[in-house]
Amino acid sequence: MPTIIINKKYNQMKKKLLTFLLLSFCTTLSFANGEQEKVNLTLQIINQTGSVPYIPHAPVRIPILYQDGHTLTFESSHTEYILTLVKDNEQEYSTIISSTTTQIVLPEHLEGEYEIQLVSNRIVFIGNITL
Questions:
Q1: Theoretical Cys-Cys bridge with 64: which of 75, 99, 100, 104, CB 3.0 to 4.6 Å?
Q2: 101: Cβ contacts below 8 Å, ≥ 6 apart
Q3: Model confidence over 48-79: pLDDT tens digits?
Q4: Can you tell me the distance from the alpha carbon of 92 to that of 38, in angstroms, rounded to the nearest whole number?
Q5: Residue of 43, 41, 40, 42 whose CA lies nearest to 122
Q6: SS3 16
Q7: 72-111 burial string, b = 16+ CB within 10 Å, else e?
């Protein structure tokens, strides 16, 4: 009887260890493939003149965004955004990012420092990236 209990515990430990190692490997692999840098975003509220000031009904969650070269990756779910890249006060690139998109690859011809803007309704998240 004791042999059966020991074997069950041993198998449970093996499963837990294997699961832990697999999760550790996947986490390490996702960040080891490139030089991902977190994009620091700040929140701004767009107030249109002549309208009532916009006050969000719930706390606003700033998206967590990583950059690896021309690839941008969202860490978690997000709402739909209009992504705009601005250089020298001129819009250089703009696209719509659906709420199901986790990665977006920016065109290779874009180079230099840009202000990145993620706009959703009357809220804009602003940061800086270098391509």
A1: 75
A2: 74
A3: 665 666 666 778 889 999 999 999 999 888 89
A4: 22
A5: 43
A6: helix
A7: bbbeeebeebebbbeeeeeeebeeebeeebeebebeeeee
- Name the residue with higher pLDDT: 58 or 128: 128
Residue 110 tokens, joined? 């874009």
Sign of the dihedral through C-alpha 105, 110, 113, 115: negative
Average pLDDT taken over every residue of the chain: 81
pLDDT per position as a tens digit, 85-113 = 999 999 999 999 999 999 999 999 999 99
> What is the residue whose two structure tokens read 């190692």?
21
Structure confidence at residue 6 (pLDDT): 56
Q: Concatenated DSSP letters for 74-126? A: ESS----EEEEEEETTEEEEEEEE-TT--EEE--TT--SEEEEEEEETTEEEE
Tokens describing residue 21: 């190692």
Would you give the end-to-end CA distance of the chain in angstroms? Answer: 65
Between CA 89 and CA 73 the distance in angstroms is 25
